[in-house]
């Protein structure tokens, strides 16, 4: 209970309070007109000018109720408290305008837009004013219960709308975080693969240029091709991000595109084996399998020592697809390194789809990456 009170006391104001607008001006103007009409037309109203002046104090309070919730509650409900004091001094059971019930709007705004400290102090002040008003009017138990329930209704409505708005903002932040992580993962998988290929070709070019100058042109052509692919994929990502409307772009690559990763005339040799039919895979699963294989190949090229062959094997099972990527490189001596962004991203892809992901040294040497994904993406 102490923790709840402390968290309520330190609750900040909502950051999305709208500024004073035309609806607020119309509300304040309509309230002022109603006050004047009621003060003129209501018969037998004691201290008519003073009562009308106290009611008109609510006009600026209605305008600034969201920007200054606690001061406006103190002003508005303070005017009501003064009316109750006058009612006790005049020994009358009817003093005040019905239009002053607009103070309930100030109470709503306090709970909806005020900080925790403002809400606690303001509602305590309102409770005292309500009790004073009931005492001044000599209300019976039925009036006390009904009036208290009516006031609490506004408090409850404000709390519900505040809670719903907070949930919506939290969900929006979660969506933005998920999109940012997905974008970072996509950029890493795309750029790292092509840049690794460029680095490998450049290293090979340095060797070939001295021993076989005639093959240098082939290496440069391969580097140019990889660089062009990198630029093309980067531009497509940027185009999607910058477009305000929906844009038509190529679907993500899938299992059917894995044979394009195979290489026979360069080191390391990349062998791709597909077993079974993959036509019925859900699109997220299909794309994830390609990205997992691509990133595993990138890691083998960049980090494995002395790797000469990388095998990519994909097998269709009744309700799942199994991906296995193995290289014949030598592991670095010493403790197992901490997983980097690549392994973390691959694990996230698999887990988000309800699958399994394992990466580590193979029993026969090299590095092995295994992933098992369901054929249908989770809802």
TrEMBL record:
The chain crosses the membrane at residues 46-63, 70-89, 95-113, 120-138, 144-163. It is an enzyme of class 2 (transferase). Signal peptide: none annotated. Residues 288-331 form the Histidine kinase/HSP90-like ATPase domain. It holds the Pfam family HisKA_3. The keyword rRNA-binding does not apply. SUPFAM superfamilies: ATPase domain of HSP90 chaperone/DNA topoisomerase II/histidine kinase. The keyword Transmembrane helix applies. This is histidine kinase.
């Amino acid at each position: 209970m102490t923790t709840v009170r402390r968290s309520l006391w330190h609750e900040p104001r909502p950051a999305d309070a709208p500024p004073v607008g035309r609806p607020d001006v119309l509300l304040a103007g309509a309230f002022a007109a109603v006050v004047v009409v009621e003060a003129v037309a209501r018969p037998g109203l004691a201290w008519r000018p003073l009562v009308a002046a106290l009611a008109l104090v609510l006009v600026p309070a209605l305008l600034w109720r969201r920007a200054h919730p606690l001061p406006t509650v103190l002003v508005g409900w303070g005017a009501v408290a003064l009316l109750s004091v006058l009612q006790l001094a005049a020994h009358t059971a009817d003093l005040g305008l019905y239009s002053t019930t607009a103070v309930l709007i100030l109470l709503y705004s306090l709970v909806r837009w005020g900080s925790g400290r403002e809400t606690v102090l303001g509602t305590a002040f309102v409770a005292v004013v309500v009790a004073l008003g009931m005492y001044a009017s000599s209300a019976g138990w039925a009036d006390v219960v009904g009036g208290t329930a009516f006031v609490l209704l506004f408090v409850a409505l404000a709390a519900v709308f505040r809670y719903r708005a907070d949930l919506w903002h939290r969900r929006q932040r979660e969506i933005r975080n998920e999109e940012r992580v997905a974008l970072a993962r996509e950029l890493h998988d795309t750029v790292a693969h092509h840049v690794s290929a460029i680095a490998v070709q450049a290293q090979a070019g340095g060797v070939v240029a001295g021993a076989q100058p005639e093959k240098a042109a082939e290496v440069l052509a391969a580097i140019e091709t990889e660089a062009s692919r990198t630029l093309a994929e980067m531009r497509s990502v940027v185009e999607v991000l910058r477009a305000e409307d929906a844009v038509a772009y190529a679907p993500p690559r899938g299992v059917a595109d894995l044979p394009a990763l195979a290489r026979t005339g360069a080191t390391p040799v990349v062998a791709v084996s597909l077993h079974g039919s993959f036509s019925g895979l859900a699109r997220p699963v299909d794309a994830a399998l390609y990205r997992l294989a691509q990133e595993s190949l990138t890691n083998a090229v960049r980090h494995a020592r002395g790797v000469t062959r990388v095998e990519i094997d994909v097998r269709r099972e009744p309700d799942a697809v199994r991906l296995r990527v193995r290289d014949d490189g030598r592991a670095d001596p010493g403790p197992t390194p901490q997983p980097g962004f690549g392994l973390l991203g691959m694990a996230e892809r698999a887990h988000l789809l309800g699958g399994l992901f394992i990466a580590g040294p193979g029993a026969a040497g090299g590095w092995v990456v295994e992933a098992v994904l369901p054929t249908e993406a989770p809802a």
